[in-house]
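User: Run a structure prediction on this.
Assistant: Running it now.
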Amino acid sequence: MSFRSISKSNPQPAAPVRTCVGCRRRALAADLLRVVAQQSDSSRITLLPDPRRRMPGRGAWLHRDPACLAQAEKRRAFARALRVSGEVDASAVASIVSAGGDKARAGMPTGCA
């Protein structure tokens, strides 16, 4: 599994670089999935994937890797990065991330290993 990463010794042309909330590695924004929060109930927050990067609001960035998603949920990184309080439901993001395994077999970058 290969993915593009940014290093100080090999600068890339100017491209947006973001940090994965799961593994805390920096990567090109094109290699990460943007996630936004939407309030569904008074105390429940739903995380929505934003693959087109056009939804309004603060976004968090995540590799399309189940390990990164698990780390982010364990560390409660989504609530911190999105500046929300309350219970966070990541089921919609989990379905997109679990489908990311098909892209790995097709040779597309999926996440951090």
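Residues 66-75 form the longest helix (10 residues).
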